[in-house]
Amino acid sequence: MKVFLxxxxxxxxxxxxxxxxxxxxxQAVYDAQREFQxxxxxxxxxxxxxxxxSDDAVIFRPDAVNGKQYWTALKKEPEGKxxxxxxxxxxxxxxxxxxxxxxxxxxxxxxxxxxxxxxxxTVWAMRQGxxxxxxxxxxxxxxxxxxxxxxxxxxxxxxxxxxxxxxSAADPSMNFLKRAMGGERLGGAYSVFAAKEVRLLREGDxxxxxxxxxxxxxxxxxxxxxxxxxxxxxxxxxxxxxxxxEYADSDEGVERGNCLHIWKLKGKSxxxxxxxxxxxxxxKKPELKLRPRMTxxx
Length: 298
Hints:
Blueprint: E1 2-6, H1 24-43, H2 45-52, E2 53-60, E3 64-66, H3 67-73, E4 80-91, E5 97-108, E6 116-127, E7 131-141, H4 170-181, H5 185-193, E8 194-202, E9 208-209, H6 211-217, E10 221-223, E11 230-235, E12 238-249, E13 254-266, E14 269-284
Parallel strand pairs: 2-7, 8-14
Antiparallel strand pairs: 1-11, 2-3, 4-5, 5-6, 6-7, 8-9, 10-12, 11-12, 12-13, 13-14
Helix pairs in contact: 1-2, 2-3, 4-5, 5-6
């Protein structure tokens, strides 16, 4: 497993549905995710995260922080129930790196129905003792008034390879950033590097599935800053890249957030199978431009 610190942005991921027989490494990630979800529901978020996060795990509150330190400093369990449901997972051909994605709901104590919902991505890596630990966890929040789209079908990652040629995801991830900052904008970058079955999680929306729709939905986004920090971690045919990111959207405002992309090597090309655009806050609110009022005076 190689770790790179570079300057860049990004992420997205697609997984295999697990309605099929799982090989041992995939089964191990599946079991870890299911146990994590069970602990979240039964024991609470603090207890579950402290047990399943690695010592160097990254979470976003809203900026990147050490997950173990964050939850340790929290004096008590949050007053409510966090429920997660895994929808897809995928794992590198080495069996050392994988991820799961799905939905989450938050129900405060005393409430019957969830008050918040969204999507999550948890990246899992093999640690000492042969146990999978969560090394990154990121979420997006959905608008409760938006109904899930009917074409949100599960993608397929296909079989991976051991990457004997040693091709790294560093170059394509850098090229993605360059395109996103240029005239092609984010949509143009996705049109080149996104897999056909790409899945994009964007703040406020349900998942956007398929390269054609992802390109259409992001054609007006343009990256306006070069990230000061980019972390890339890869194992054989899978890599994930996260970084702070800042976008302008059709000149209506600027959004700052955290971006994650999951890359998969297929044949001779690295492609984005999963992407996350998780907003931190609106830096510049859109302004309504009005014409000067006519007063009748010269």
